[in-house]
Specification:
heterodimer; A: alpha+beta; 3-stranded antiparallel beta sheet; globular; B: alpha+beta; 6-stranded mixed beta sheet; 5-stranded antiparallel beta sheet; 17 helices; elongated
């Protein structure tokens, strides 16, 4: 079994959840999100983020608005939609269940 | 010393080294291909370009600095290549990756595409896009366009609008770079064909060099390669020729059609594009003759759409084959098709309602005694045909034709003239005028639109070769039939020019109409017979 591939698969499943988590609370623009995700080593290359953002937006979980910036052209600020918040909540509880399940299995050995 | 370019990424201007420029161009092109041309893909690309722009701004801040290849490499490493996105990308992306040598493939596909250039546009950026594509100075191109606009009676504008709709606007930097791709068009085509020729050669060499002791399968595969690459070159050439032919044909028919609709007196008469529509008669004029006024405008519009849309489609396909631009406009396509269907249905409905105008028939018969009791022979002749040269031979409405007289269209037709035995001992001329109409009254009214004249002087009768419809009359199958009743024992002489109007005259010789002229005929108990002493013909 390819270890890197397995790791990638695991991370892939969690990445969307992480993006929603990062955006929760305040509108962010792509570079802020990248910074946050890179710091926690969730993404390796930045190009990964953009298709995901577009997909989450098209699925109705995210919305964006244009905001003027002091340097350079206007930026897209993403925020959670109502549906996105609901989705995040659901994902959160299922994530907690998973972590709990893994912890229990590890402890019982 | 290095050459630098000035580029615009996501609204910011950068100076970039020659090699860095090429590297970036390749990278953006790769992304462009990865994400595809769908709206979603283009949105992703725009976002990524915005980020690249931002990274460059960071790198070049404070002092004026040129973007080097190292910077580009850094940015590419940071953004990642399409295959790196897969790591955490969406599942279906795995199907999108190209299995074989990505970079070589990308390089080969890095050809110029036609886009509209929004940066230096006046209207829709078609000219500026064309300028970039053909590498022609914009001013020259625009002057040519304006000239074409006047010379083609506005047709160029239609072509422009078609391209405006069909050709995508260069939105992302990748597209703008593609728009100004490295190679010029003609040499581009030549080059691509040469490249493929080389491929043919290579695969042929490979095929020949495969040792015979290798598996037969390899040989067959190689042979297949040779065949497919030959076919590919051939197809590309065919496609290009076909595209060029479509464009030329499309523009020519468009010009012919537009002038036919709008101008009438086309200057293109007799050219290879004269598709049977005579220059003297235009569609609008033609319709006037047999469509009632209320349906006239509707059918004119319907015909324009019905004929115009396929012509535009031909143009569109032609330009697409030649310039290889991408399109993504299902809505316009469907809308156009819908419009075409609506026009078709409209025309059918109008035609059906027009058929009602032919529903009833009416006729009017005038019997006229020919005042010549002493005559033994009646001399019949047709007056000179003044209209022959003015008649449009392309258009024929049953028995009627259209002639252009002093710039005005006139409907006319030959009457039919026959000779029968009279039951009395007098010559009688029966003139029957017939027409159709939506009702009997209407038909009668249409009968009255017929004008026909003849004259008699002593024993000579001169008939007009044509009957006419009064001005603004509609064609409703109007026709004129004449029958001359000849009493037994009396004769008629048929003048040579009567050949134009005599129709199926029964005679004892069973002679054809055309042969009957120039002779004197006597009415006998058995019917019309040739009078033997025919040759010396003199008026009494």
């Amino acid at each position: 079994m390819d270890l890197n591939n397995t790791k990638a698969q695991m991370r892939k499943g969690v990445l969307e959840y992480c993006i929603l988590l990062v955006i929760e609370g305040k509108p962010l623009y792509a570079s802020d999100i990248i910074e946050e995700l890179s710091r926690s080593k969730m993404i390796v290359v930045e190009g990964t983020l953009y298709p995901l953002l577009t997909r989450l937006k098209n699925d109705g979980l995210l919305a964006y608005k244009w905001e003027e910036s002091t340097q350079g052209p206007p930026r897209k600020y993403y925020e959670l939609t109502e549906e996105g918040s609901y989705f995040l909540n659901e994902m959160g509880s299922s994530w907690d269940e998973l972590v709990e399940a893994v912890r229990m299995i590890k402890e019982h050995k | 010393m290095k050459k630098t370019f000035t580029i615009n990424i996501s609204g910011s201007i950068f100076h970039i080294d020659d090699d860095a420029y090429e590297n970036l161009q390749r990278y953006l092109h790769m992304l462009n291909r990865h994400f595809g041309t769908a709206i979603e893909g283009q949105e992703i690309l725009q976002d990524i370009e915005a980020r690249i722009s931002e990274l460059f701004i960071e790198k070049t801040s404070n002092k004026v600095e040129v973007i080097t290849n190292i910077m580009v490499e850094e940015v590419i490493a940071r953004m990642g290549k399409p295959e790196d996105f897969l790591e955490a990308g969406d599942e279906d992306a795995s199907t999108k990756t190209q299995p074989k040598g990505e970079s070589a493939d990308t390089e080969q596909k890095m050809r110029r595409r036609l886009y509209r250039d929004g940066d230096s546009r006046v209207l829709g950026g078609v000219c500026s896009g064309m300028g970039a594509y053909f590498n022609i100075d914009l001013v020259i191109l625009r002057v040519i366009f304006v000239l074409a606009f006047f010379l083609s009676a506005g047709t160029a504008m239609i072509v422009y609008i078609v391209l405006w709709i069909a050709v995508p606007k260069a939105k992302t930097t990748a597209q703008r770079l593609e728009m100004k791709g490295k190679e010029a068009t003609i040499s581009n085509i030549e080059k691509s064909i040469k490249e493929e020729m080389n491929e043919v050669g290579e695969s042929y060499n490979k095929f020949m060099n495969t040792p015979t002791n290798e598996k037969g399968q390899t040989r067959i595969e190689r042979f297949g390669d040779v065949v497919t690459s030959v076919l590919r070159v051939f197809l590309r050439i065919v496609v290009l020729l076909f595209g060029a032919a479509l464009i030329i044909g499309g523009i020519a028919s468009l010009i012919a059609f537009v002038t036919s609709i709008a101008v009438g007196h086309s200057f293109m008469s007799g050219g290879p594009w004269d598709f049977g529509w005579d220059s003297d008669i235009n569609m609008t004029g033609l319709l006037e003759h047999f469509v009632s006024p209320e349906a006239y405008t509707i059918s004119l519009i319907a015909i324009s759409v019905l004929v115009g849309i396929p012509i535009l489609l031909i143009l569109f396909i032609g330009t697409k084959l030649l310039f290889r631009y991408k399109t993504n406009n299902k809505l316009i396509g469907l809308g156009t098709f819908g419009l075409w269907l609506v026009a078709l249905i409209t025309l059918i409905v109008v035609s059906v309602s027009q058929v009602g105008n032919f529903g009833k028939q009416s006729s009017q018969t005038i019997t006229q005694k020919v005042e010549c009791t002493v005559c033994k022979t009646l001399y019949l002749e047709t007056s000179d045909d003044l209209y022959e040269s003015m008649i449009d031979d392309h258009i024929s409405l049953d028995r009627m034709k259209i002639a252009v007289v002093n710039g005005k269209e006139k409907m006319l037709g030959h009457p039919r003239f026959s000779v029968e035995k009279s039951s009395t001992d007098e010559y009688l001329l029966l003139i029957k005028k017939r027409a159709r109409g939506s009702s009997t009254e209407d038909a009668q009214n249409n009968v009255e639109q017929i004008e026909y004249n003849f004259s008699q002087k002593d024993s000579t009768m001169i008939f007009d070769p044509y009957y006419f419809l009064k001005e603004n009359a509609k064609w409703r199958e109007q026709e004129v039939t004449m029958t001359l009743k000849v009493p037994e024992g009396k004769s008629v002489y048929l003048g040579k020019k009567m050949a134009d109007i005599i129709y199926d005259i029964e005679n004892t010789e069973n002679m054809w109409d055309g042969d009957m002229v120039g002779k004197t005929w006597i009415m006998t108990a058995d019917g019309l017979a040739l009078k033997k002493d025919t040759v010396p013909v003199q008026k009494q």
